[in-house]
User: Fold this.
Amino acid sequence: MSTGDVMYVSSNGFGMGHLTRLMAMAGRRSDGVRPYVVSMSRAVPLVADQGLDYEYIPSRDDLGIGARRWRFVFAERFASVLLRERPDVVVFDGVHPYEGVLASRTVLPGVRLVWSRRAMWRPGLVAQQLASSSVFDVVVEPGELAAELDAGATVGRTDAVRVGPVTLLDHADLLPREQAAAALGVDPDRPTALVTLGVGSIKDVESDVGRVVNGLLGVPGLQVVVTRPTIASAQSDLPPGVRGVWLYPISRYLAAVDLAVAAAGYNSFHELAGFGVPTAFVANTTTGVDDQPARARWAQRAGVGLDVPVLDASGVRRVVDELGDPGRRAVLRAALEQVRRPNGAAAAQAQVEGLLPRRAR
Assistant:
């Protein structure tokens, strides 16, 4: 039996993708493994709901300091955490391993290192950080449904162990439709649309969120749920027929969702596709190295979703016409069943635990 201490380290990122993938892995740990999370994400307290202890190290933006100074601050703080917790393995999920993480063995000789390195990088990026791969004992690559359209820097590399798409939950973890609908505040007997784009005001008809919500409200009988950034703003200034929610993970409630309009980030894409929700994907083109447009194009090409690059009048009309049609949704759901793949989180965690000491039970 593998036993030992594993430290999961996430970068800040543009959302919760890095942190969520680590939580997915830690949630599938063996009984003898003690997890500890270190993150630059202000959302890190959420890991406590998963029974995980954590440490928050502020990002450069949160501290408001220059990059060079922040690297020094992070390295010093991370070294102190390493010496206090003394993990057997450090797992980093992010695009660019920090110098402080790469120097872990200098601080704690014998510690093993794993890089959880997502694929699907935007083409043409200079990827000097890939040279850091040799520092790690194992590189794990979370699976990508849209891999055939991947034209980024990780394509063709042989240094990674590839697993299935990593999601926090499995199908068995989703609430039944009635319970999920109650949590969302909707009627389980009526169709429900989920809008999870992250930015924009529902009241502002010129925002992406405002346009698509107003368009969906025109579908007879359709209920609209919008994810909001904070609980306090969840029910403020919402038009009739729209529910604002802040629930994590939102994937737990997808059995009550009949269609969605979402960004094409790794987590939201693989959750919505993996759990069979017909979705219009609106790629965010400002998210660093992540090639969201390619994911959305793949969904359209594979017939499992819509690629809606712009939520202008034409884009909203297409969302409403296609996803508002029950017959079209049924076709998409059937196609999604065909591309479904097993969750790769357990396989990724197995790679981590393979580096732990083996002790007799």
Observations:
- The first strand starts at residue 4 and ends at 10.
